[in-house]
Design brief:
This protein is of the alpha/beta class. It folds into 3 domains: about 5-135 and about 305-335, NAD(P)-binding Rossmann-like Domain (Rossmann fold); about 140-300, Dihydrodipicolinate Reductase, domain 2 (2-Layer Sandwich); about 350-435, ACT domain (Alpha-Beta Plaits, 2-Layer Sandwich). Helices cover about 40% and strands about 25% of the residues. The protein has 16 helices and 17 strands. Strands 7, 8, 9, 10, 11, 12, 13, 14, 15, 16 and 17 form an 11-stranded mixed beta sheet that branches. Strands 3-2-1-4-5-6 form a 6-stranded parallel beta sheet, with helices on both faces. A hairpin with a 3-residue loop joins strand 11 (about 280-290) and strand 12 (about 290-300). The chain starts with a strand and ends with a strand. The relative contact order is 0.13. The structure holds L-homoserine.
């Protein structure tokens, strides 16, 4: 049978990995897919470089629309990234009746509703395993492997750059800005690292997982997004002393009134496996009512790990493209006419526990006032430590740090309590608040 013909839009790190792995493993992939899968056309602005990466039998052009217009191309792989031209090309490929594979989390998290609706109308597939956690097959796991479950929550380390930075901060006791520069020098962080360090990349991925886990539309605009730029080395150390690690988590959680969708630094008990995911690695925990808690671990970026996910999608499409469209796995796991209207909850309604650090005057009654405010707000304290003033501010210091761990409360309750504590004259600096997830 004739091979499935693939056109790549962009041949950078992931595109070249996809080409190479398809070449290297072509026989095994064919035995699995039932047909050969071949890259026969590539579009890239740097034609000479692109041609040097592929065999002479592959047509290389600088116009992506030439790939979409080629009637022999069955699947278009979009590896350009971003919301601009990539969106236009994906929609044009769908209109041309092509199946699409993309690693573009930003595009799908923001414009997924429009793109999936267009694909549904045209009866084509848009596959995006590579968009979340690179080589980890988390989309497949959530959408198919766990399909029996009512999924309760998903929590993941889904950005390798920030996990690398946090690991280095903890290991070496260094500040964020120092480690960021080192990460850029080593190529772990981009020259413009904003999307990674501000939590945006993780929020794109969490948005996609929330949609598949709960059958809600993709709603990136409703996600709460907080990155790691404000984290201090001392909070990482205090957390460690209390038996926790700080990780940037992407969280999607089902509650009776709606869905929590949030990305922020979180204390995680050091004894959890996920707390020990270090460096640029990714990991995702999923809790389903039937299966309990499951954990998926692996490389979240890189040429061949991401290619592994792209090719898995190519094989799925090769197997299913002749099937009746209604019999295929729905893009977001749930049938398009059976989506949930559970709202994404505002951050003020999220329920979680907290780590608080207060720089206070080392005077009688200060701790009593602080704990009194928490008690009046109905917030239960789990643990308190107070540093010796000399350790915090040096010999003869009159200031110290009080660190408080709380039990669960509603975020708006905590906002109000923090405002009251901040107003105390004996609280000498901005209060640090980091959320805490037990992931039990
Ligand atoms: N920049 C991402 C990361 C990889 O650091 O994990 C691609 O999403």
């Amino acid at each position: 049978m004739k091979s499935i013909q693939v056109g790549l839009l962009g041949i950078g790190t992931v595109g070249s990995g996809t080409y190479n792995v398809l070449q290297r493993n072509q026989q095994e992939i064919q035995r699995r897919a039932g047909r050969g899968i071949e890259v026969t056309m590539v579009a890239d602005l740097d034609v000479a470089r692109a041609q040097s990466l592929v065999g002479p039998g592959v047509a290389v052009v600088n116009d992506a629309r030439a790939v979409i217009a080629n009637p022999d191309i069955d699947i278009v792989v979009e590896l350009i990234g971003g919301y601009g031209i990539a969106k236009a090309l994906v929609l044009e490929a769908i209109e041309a009746g092509k199946h699409v594979v993309t690693a573009n989390k930003a595009l799908l998290a923001v414009h997924g509703t429009e793109i999936f609706a267009a694909a549904h109308r045209k009866g084509v597939m848009v596959a995006f395993e590579a968009a979340v956690a690179g080589g980890i097959p988390i989309i497949k796991a959530l959408r198919e492997g766990l399909t029996a479950n009512s999924i309760q929550w998903v929590a993941g380390i889904i950005n390798g750059t920030t996990n690398f930075i946090l690991s280095e901060m903890r290991d070496k006791g260094l500040d964020f800005s120092v480690v960021l520069k080192e990460a850029q020098r080593l190529g772990y962080a981009e020259a413009d690292p904003t999307f990674d360090i501000e939590g945006v990349d993780a929020a794109h991925k969490a948005t996609l997982m929330s949609a598949i886990a709960f059958g809600i539309p993709v709603q990136f605009d409703k996600a709460y997004v907080e990155g790691i730029t404000q984290l201090g080395a001392q909070d990482i150390q205090y957390a460690e002393q209390l038996g926790y690690r700080i990780k940037l988590l992407g969280i999607a959680k089902r509650r009776a009134t709606g869905i929590e969708l949030r990305v922020h630094p979180s204390l995680v008990p050091a004894k959890r496996l996920i707390a020990n995911v270090e460096g640029a690695m990714n990991a995702v925990m999923v809790h389903g009512d039937a299966v309990g808690t499951t954990l998926y671990y692996g490389k979240g970026a890189g040429s061949e790990p991401t290619a592994s996910a792209v090719i898995a999608d190519l094989v799925d499409i090769t197997r299913l493209h002749t099937a009746d469209a209604a019999q295929r796995v729905p893009h977001l796991a749930f049938q398009p006419d059976a989506m949930s209207d559970l709202p994404v909850l505002p951050m003020s309604e999220v329920v979680t526990s907290y780590y608080l650090r207060l720089r206070v005057a080392d005077q009688a009654g200060v701790l009593a006032k602080v704990t009194g405010i928490l008690a009046d707000a109905g917030i239960s304290i789990d643990a308190v430590i107070q540093r010796e003033a000399d350790e915090v501010g040096g010999e003869g210091s009159t200031q110290t740090d009080v660190i408080i761990l709380t039990h669960d409360c509603v975020e708006s309750q905590m906002d109000a309590a923090i405002a009251q504590m901040q107003a105390l004259p004996t609280v000498l600096a901005a209060i640090t608040r980091i959320r805490k997830e037990e992931l039990a």
